[in-house]
Structure formats: C-alpha cells, structure tokens
Amino acid sequence: MKFKSQIFYQLLLLSSALLAAPYAKAQGKLDEYIRQGLASNESIRQQNFVLEKNIYALKEAKSMFLPDVTFSTNYTKADGGRTIDFPTGDLLNGAYATLNRLTGSNSFPQLQNQRILLNPDNFYDAKLRTSLPILNAELIYNKRIKQQQVDLQKTEVLLYKRELVKEIKTAYYSYLKATSATSIYESSLRLVEEGLRINTKLYNNSKVNRTVVLRSENEVSRINASLITATKTAESARYYFNFLLNRPLTDSVQLDNITELPSQDQSLGNNVGGREELSKLRIAKDINGNLTGLAKSYLIPKVGTYLDLGSQAFDWQVNRQSKYYFLGVSLEWNLFSFGKHSNRIKQTLSDQQALASQTDYVQQQLLTELKVRQSGMQSAIAQYNAAQSQLKTSQTYYNDELKLYKQGMAIYIELLDAQNQWIDAQLNANIALYDTWIANTAIERANASFTIQQ
After folding, report:
1. C-alpha distances in angstroms, 159 versus 41, 62, 76, 152, 375?
2. Tens digit of pLDDT for each residue in 206-261?
3. If phi over 0 gives left and psi between -120 and 50 gives alpha, with beta otherwise, what is residue 69?
C-alpha cells in the first residue's frame, strides 16, 4: 500500500505541474532579453556604423550648398623666356632731344628700347576665394540620393533586428521546451526509482518474481539516459540563446511561465507590406528615379558665383595698390556629348524595370512564405490538441491500471506500460505547446507584425 500511495502522490505532483498551471502571463522576461539582444548584438552594431557613415555622407551633400572659402597664394621667380619689345627710345628720344635744345639743358635723358619679360619675376599673388553654387541640379539630386541611402540603411538595420528577434524568441522557446522535458524526466526518474525500491523489497519478501525487478532496473536506466540527453540538449539551447544576446554562454536564463497557446490575431491575414525587404526595394526604386534625374541634369545649366579678395605685387609689397577684389559669375551648360548622357539615362531606365520585376517576385515570395508559416501554425495547433487529448487519455489509462494493480488484477508490466504512455504523452504535450510558439514566431517574422522599438 505504501508503494501504491507513493506512485499516486507522484502522479498528482506531475499532473498538477502540467494541467493545473495558471493562465500564461505576459512574457516580461523574454521581452527584456529581446531588448538586451537588440542592444548588444555585434551584427546590428556593425550595421549602425554603416548607418552613421551614411548620415555623415548626407551632411556632406548638404554642405555643398553652402559657401566654400579657400586661401591660396603663389610666388614666381623667373628669368628668360618670352618677351615683349617696347620701343620706348624710338618713341620718346626725338621729342626729348628737341626739349633739351629748347631748354638748353639735359633734363630729358635718352631712353633705351625695353624688352619686357612675360613671366612675372619676383611676383606674388595671395587671395581668399569664396565660391557659392547658385543653380546645380547635380547637387540637388546627390542630396536626395544620400537621404534615401540613409533611409535604406535604417531599413537594413531594422531588417537585422527583426531577424534577430525571431532567432532570440525561437531559441528561448527551444530552451523552455528542453528544460520542461528535463523536469518531466526528473519526475519520471523519481517515480521509477521509487518503483524499483518497492519492487526490490517485494522481491526480497517473495511477493513478486525477478522479472519485475529487472524491468524496474531497465526503466531506471532508460529514464536516466533520457534525462542526461535532455539536460545536454537544454545546455546547448542555453549556450545558443546566450550567444545571441552576446553574453557568457554559461549565464543562467530566467524563464516565463507559458501554459497556453499564443494569440491567433496576428497570424491571420495576408499582409506582407510591412516587410523590410519590400521597403528596401521601394527605396531602391526611389533612388533609381533620382539617378535618372541625375543623368538628365546635364540639360540644366550650372550657375555659380565667386569672390576673390587678395593682394598681388612685386617684391612682396603690400599697399593700397596691391590689394584687389575680383567678383565673377560662371555658367556651364553641356550642349553635346556624343550620347554619353542618353546612354546613362537608358541604363537607369533598365534598372528601374528590373527593380519593378524584382519587387513583384519578392512580394509573391514573401506571401508564399507567410502562407507556409500559417499552415505550419495550423499543423502545430492540431498537434497540440491531439497531444492534450492523448495526455488526458493516457492519464485516465494510468489511473485505471493503478486501481487494478492495487486490487491485484493487473501485473506490473501492464502498469509500467501505462506509466510509459503517460510519460510520453507529457513529453509530446510539452513539445507541441512550444512548437506552437515557435510557429507563431515564424509568422511574426513572415508578416513583420512584431513591433520593434527604434
């Protein structure tokens, strides 16, 4: 009677752990782990560095519309080379001679013809140049493209985050499934060990034959081996989960209490418009449109202005005469380039058609993925319902066999068979429960329904 009451007590403990658990609460611990993973993942950090680079590139593009101030100077020392002959003596000496005769003096000397060196000798030119674009379509399209590249990289970061969330949730549920299986095997091991102890005592008192003891020993070995396997599986699942969170692999993992199926609200519908893959293609299409505009920008003239403030003179002199300003307006208009720009435009139009075709294909591909995930969810729910029915049936079967065993109307092998069926039913119910959550996670990924904090 002691053996039978202990078996029944273990039965009550095990069934209460699986069937009498409270309704599943909000998965606060998992949400916290997701936040940790998004903050510490190295791949996301790398993508954030790329995003930072694109933001700086956008700032650079905006700065091109602002004035540009540069300082430049040059100094030349020259001798030889081309010259200009200026007949100073031929032009003035006759007049100077007449003036000397009239004045009776030598006040007007005779001059030599001059040979002026074209290359400036001992000459400097120092200036500050301020330039400002007034009309430049290339700069306008360049800024738009840089802005869209920032948006594209933000979408890429979000894509990495969404994939990481899926991996974290899947790893978390896999770890929960493994730890729950470990708990089931631990309870089962205590149950069969107690059965071995009682059967050994009964055998020593010649109440049962040797076969009962051998079968009990067999069950202890089998359950113990299964427990070791389940423990190692749980350890591996914990290592991978901590790896995703960029934590030490052996860190402990706090678990949420999950006993119910996930909500089915987000698993309905066929909307995949929120997928980052489609957002990237839409942004790429916009970028391509601006690339087309950039290729056509040669039709618009470029207008700019500049102002030079400086000083230039010989022998490093700086005075009122050496200082100067120089204001100018420039106009550049490409009138003909032998088809270079038209061919470039045709390239961007071809890219636009390729992007449109790719968008249709990817959208259909993502919709197919969602349908497959939804079918997987329906299958997982069906498996869960069947496992729950089997769990209830096997528990009833075990209870009936236990009553018969108490009355001496069933042999131990029959009780053991009922017990094994009940243990297997618990394991199947555990697997089916967490498989529904894993399938739900796959749907969240397929329709991008999980809200990611920016």
Report:
1. 13, 27, 60, 10, 24
2. 877 888 888 888 889 999 999 999 999 999 999 999 999 999 999 999 998 888 99
3. beta
Q: Which helix (H) or strand (E) holds 329?
A: strand 323-332
pTM given for the model: 0.78
Nearest alpha-carbon partner for 254 in 432, 36, 38, 41:
36
Q: Are strands 323-332 and 302-314 parallel, antiparallel or unpaired?
A: antiparallel
By residue count, the chain amounts to 454
Q: Per-residue pLDDT tens for 279-334?
A: 999 999 999 999 999 988 888 999 999 999 999 999 899 998 999 999 999 999 88
Could you identify the residue written with the tokens 């869960």? 384
Tens of pLDDT, residues 376-407: 999 999 999 999 999 999 989 988 887 887 77
Is the Cα torsion angle 383, 388, 391, 394 positive or negative in sign? negative
In sequence order, which residues have a C-beta less than 8 Å from that of residue 283 and are 6 or more positions away? 148, 151, 152, 155
DSSP secondary structure code for residue 79 in this structure: -
Burial 84-115 (b: 16+ CB within 10 A, else e): eeeeeeeeebeeeeeeeeeeeeeeeeeeeeee
Instruction: Indicate the fold that domain 2-74+135-303+339-447 takes in CATH.
Output: Outer membrane efflux proteins (OEP) (1.20.1600)
- Map residue 257 onto helix, strand or coil: coil
